[in-house]
Design goal:
Length: 116
C-alpha cells in the first residue's frame, strides 16, 4: 500500500510540476510534457513490480503504436479552440476523436497481424 502511495505521489508531483512550468514558459512546459514521462514511469513501475523485461518490451511496442493515434488530440484541440469552441467542448471533442483514432489504429494493426 505504501509503495502504491509513493508511485501516486511521484506521478502527481511530475504532472503538477509540468503545469507550473508551463505557466511560466509554454515552450519549456511543452518540451517537458512531450517527454514520455508517463510511459517511462509506467515502465519503471512495471519493472520494479515484475522484473520482467519481456513485459517492458511488449509495453514499449504498444506505446509506440498508440502514440500515432494520440497525435489526433494535439492536432484537433487547437483547431477546435481556434473555431472559438468552449475549452471543455473542444477538449471533449478532441478526446472523442482520439479514442476513435485508437480504435482505427487497433483495427489497422489487426489487419497486419500486429498484436499488442
Amino acid at each position: 500500500m505504501v509503495y502504491n502511495i509513493i508511485k501516486i505521489v511521484i506521478s502527481a508531483v511530475l504532472i503538477v510540476l509540468i503545469s507550473e512550468i508551463a505557466k511560466r514558459s509554454t515552450l519549456i512546459g511543452s518540451v517537458i510534457a512531450s517527454i514520455p514521462i508517463v510511459s517511462v514511469l509506467a515502465m519503471i513501475w512495471l519493472y520494479i513490480d515484475t522484473q520482467n523485461t519481456q513485459q517492458i518490451i511488449v509495453l514499449s511496442k504498444g506505446i509506440f503504436w498508440m502514440v500515432l493515434p494520440s497525435l489526433v488530440l494535439f492536432i484537433t484541440l487547437p483547431i477546435f479552440l481556434r473555431l472559438r469552441l468552449n475549452f471543455f467542448v473542444s477538449l471533449s471533442s478532441a478526446i472523442a476523436l482520439t479514442v476513435i483514432a485508437y480504435f482505427l489504429m487497433l483495427s489497422i494493426l489487426e489487419k497486419f497481424n500486429i498484436r499488442l
